[in-house]
Recover the amino acids of this structure.
């Protein structure tokens, strides 16, 4: 388990620790269900226990971490039913975001999303999954922002937090990653054409495909664990 070492200003210590810890959780450097070892994390992040605990509380509020009585904090672990239910809600939120964004997006917002798409494709060409995922997440957030509905954005952020690590992992299969890239290209086309129906459809397809990949991974891991016990 490692984290990039950077100088952290005192005033924002817990926030920057939360940023780096969030990245470690999303990128599965801390696996689902793992206990967060405060001593080890304080050393890795080069912060004291106080800002680290504040950072953990922030991530618990986001849904990335669970705080258990008398057991400390663990990385969120979703079972198959949780994944199915959460993706079902998220697909609806993404589809509504896309539909409203296609109707309301400004030229400047569209240009910014296209610029991020260009950077994301460069990361895909390099097979740089962390960079690709960060840009991918920014694109989805920008589409949501272009919908211009603060209640939708608040709900979107709450639900999406539970899925970030799983969405990151869903691109680790080469063919499925390629399919996701094609879906993103269709999103840009639909946004550019202000085609609300096409945008809604591609985002529903995109999220349902993500769900299927994640469920397949969970089942494969479960089968592997059962085989190891046999």
């Amino acid at each position: 388990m490692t984290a990039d070492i950077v100088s952290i200003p005192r005033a924002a210590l817990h926030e920057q620790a939360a940023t780096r810890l969030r990245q470690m959780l999303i990128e599965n450097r801390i696996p689902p269900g793992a206990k967060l070892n405060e001593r080890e994390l304080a050393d890795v992040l080069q912060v004291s226990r106080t800002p680290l605990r504040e950072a953990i509380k922030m991530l618990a509020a986001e849904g990335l971490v669970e705080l258990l009585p008398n057991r400390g904090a663990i990385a969120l672990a979703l079972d198959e039913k949780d994944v199915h239910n959460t993706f079902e809600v998220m697909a609806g939120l993404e589809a509504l975001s896309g539909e409203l964004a296609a109707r309301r997006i400004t030229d400047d917002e569209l240009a910014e999303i296209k610029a991020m798409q260009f950077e994301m494709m460069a990361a895909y060409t390099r097979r740089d999954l962390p960079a690709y995922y960060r840009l991918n997440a920014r694109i989805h957030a920008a589409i949501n922002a272009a919908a211009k509905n603060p209640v939708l954005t608040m709900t979107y952020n709450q639900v999406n937090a539970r899925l970030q690590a799983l969405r990151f992992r869903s691109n680790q299969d080469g063919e499925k990653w390629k399919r996701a890239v094609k879906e993103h290209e269709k999103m840009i086309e639909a946004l550019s054409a202000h085609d609300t129906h096409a945008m809604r459809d591609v985002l529903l397809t995109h999220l349902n495909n993500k769900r299927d990949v994640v469920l397949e991974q969970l089942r494969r891991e479960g089968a592997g664990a059962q085989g190891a016990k046999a």
